[in-house]
Fold these 3 entries.
Entry 1:
Amino acid sequence: MAPKHHPTPLSGGDRKALTKELGKARAMTGILAAQSAEMRAKGAALIQQADRLLCESWNERMWSDGEPIDPSPTIDQAIAGGFPWLEIQCSRCKTPNDVDLAALKHPPTTFVHDLASRLRCRKCAKAGRRPSATLLQLGWQPRHPRGEV
Ligand SMILES: [Zn+2]
């Protein structure tokens, strides 16, 4: 693309002024872009904090009353907020389990509370039952070491 053409002013003073204004505008391009990037990074950090607080709020409700499970964070909010694990318990046989939210095939916009009816206990499935999961807590790591459940 050819550089943009600015008609040359007739007077020398105007020509000088135009050169100065063009220099300023070119400098502003970089300054404004840097400010935009900085604000965007701040915004992303704030969103991450909001996600973390949403997870902590839900955890407090689960710990104190255990219900209602709705509203809850979405899978991607939980992961972004630093809580990529969901601790559950089978509502029938009480077997505990840790769910790796990042490994789920559900869309990341799925709400955590919607998982209650979708996560199945392997033990009960073998017995031909499909009880729902009791949701306990979101965690930053699995509570039960691998292989225990
Ligand atoms: Zn079970």
Note: The CA atoms of residues 42 and 138 lie 25 Å apart.
Entry 2:
Amino acid sequence: MSSDASPRKFKLHVMAQEAREHAGLADVAQLPRLRADLDLSGPPVQPIAWQVMVQWRERAGGEPELWLHLRANAQLPLTCQRCLTPVVQTLAVDRWFRFVESEDVAQAQDDDCEEDLLVFEPQFDLLSLLEDELLMELPLVPMHETCPDLPALGQESPLADPSGERPHPFAALASLKGKGR
Ligand SMILES: [Zn+2]
């Protein structure tokens, strides 16, 4: 843990020389794009724990490369798409990035490498990267495994049953049988 590095102005070269992990907590109030997607009607959102490591990597026949490892864990309330109440989703980020000198280089190399590329900035905005990564991890359709207030919905509702029409012929048959007696 350290407080000597502002996560908005991460000095990448200094971090790489230190070659140690930095960690901190980010409040969702600091991440407005992410906050906009959250369901804030429940209990307060827990701060997001992050860890970052910056390192130089030697490369055969070339300049050393600057890499960044970002890890984060978040418990974020989203709106359940079935019952429309908050559902807390656990999101984990664990990703390596390689810095390149410009956007042009990033675009030229992006198709040829598996790692994610970032454009080098002497004072790097780590929280913005964290926010981008968490936004990508958000589920498209957040849902409770079992919704708290509507446990039977989806199983009992005839609207949700794709075979909902099938009972009718038998029901009709049963009523015919009843008439024949
Ligand atoms: Zn639900």
Note: The first helix runs from residue 12 to 18.
Entry 3:
Amino acid sequence: MNKREFLRTLGSASLGVMVAPATLERYARMPYAELAQQDAFWATIRGKYRLTPDYINLENGYYSMQAEPVLDAFMGHVRRTNYEASRYMRTAQVPDKLRVRTRLAGLAGCSAEELIVTRNTTESLDTVIAGYDWTPGDEAIMAAQDYGAMLDMFKLQARRYGMVNRVVSLPHDPRSDDELVQVYANAITPRTRLLMVCHMVNITGHILPVRAIADMAHARGVDVMVDGAHAFAQLDFKIPDLGGDYYGASLHKWLGVPLGAGILYVRREKIEKLWPIYGDSAFADTDIRKLNHTGTHPVHTDLAIDDAIDFHESIGIARKEARLRFLQQYWTRQVRGVPRIVLNTPSDSKRSCAIANVGVEGVKPADLARELFERFRVWTVAIDRAEARVHGVRVTPHVYTTTAELDTFVGALKALAA
Ligand SMILES: Cc1ncc(COP(=O)(O)O)c(C=O)c1O
């Protein structure tokens, strides 16, 4: 983004001016890594959210609350669809949704013909998993650290069709991308058809080298499905550059859309072979909309995607990613190496962003989360997954998190570990 564009978006009249015009120019010229540390700048972003004074929310991985301008716009969409009722649905819904889908495709860097708006990552990825014509003995690869709903969907296919799931386990602190590529490569056999890989592991925040894994898998004739639940709108990337065949993400996570919106990207050549879950003879086998038969659904959520993109772009993805990574590094640096504190997130800063996971030796994750909340008013979530070797609390700051809040958290963690 050049300076003029930055001034235009950051000063976007539709959202209200985020930063006073006199200070804009200084921030516009600032390198992202430096801007990431400017608490005064981020305080203006924080001012766009309505935050509870009752506790510090470090559990923004579940979903992001909407910024106030997005929430206001969303309420307007609810009112409009309620007011115009079926006339809205019959005359304006389709073109409005197409506009939103096209804008999302721009954000994702793909064609609108390769992207649909779903309810969430679960619907997106389960549509792909269930869309394969599995035959007995076919194989799929996934990791123990993947999300439970997708692992369950693969188990369902195994029960139903006799396909076989090969589950690998990821190192928490790899020395190289190649180490991770090899973990997946070792599980491929002549029967492997599909490999699922997380762009960002939700329980540890580990960012995986998706491009390298996809290139390796494609060289062996294996399709690649990427779970981007947490990566989309947290990391600065374009979906096709990752090299996957399918990509699913939730927009209520890092794009700050109201609950209940996601995307599914399917590479053009892969659309025809996927079976839809719901019958829809209106679309050709090669048309991605065949996978998007939602029935009547809360269209006002889809409409608010436009407003959430406005807000997201008014900050800029590179600035957002830099701030989120800075915040995570700000607190993890202070506790790495402290006796009894165990970090379950890679030490290499390129391999993580907002999310990290921390445990205290001898303390159950549920007890740690409870103590943090009851004694220190810090809200996190306990992760206790033996098969994934992850025991700790997941800590997820957001763009509105302050370093002072993280100082409170670090103090609490050190006190509990002492
Ligand atoms: C890695 C990962 N995949 C999939 C999902 C499912 O997302 P949703 O519940 O929005 O469908 C999540 C949710 O946290 C996740 O972390």
Note: The longest strand covers residues 192-198.
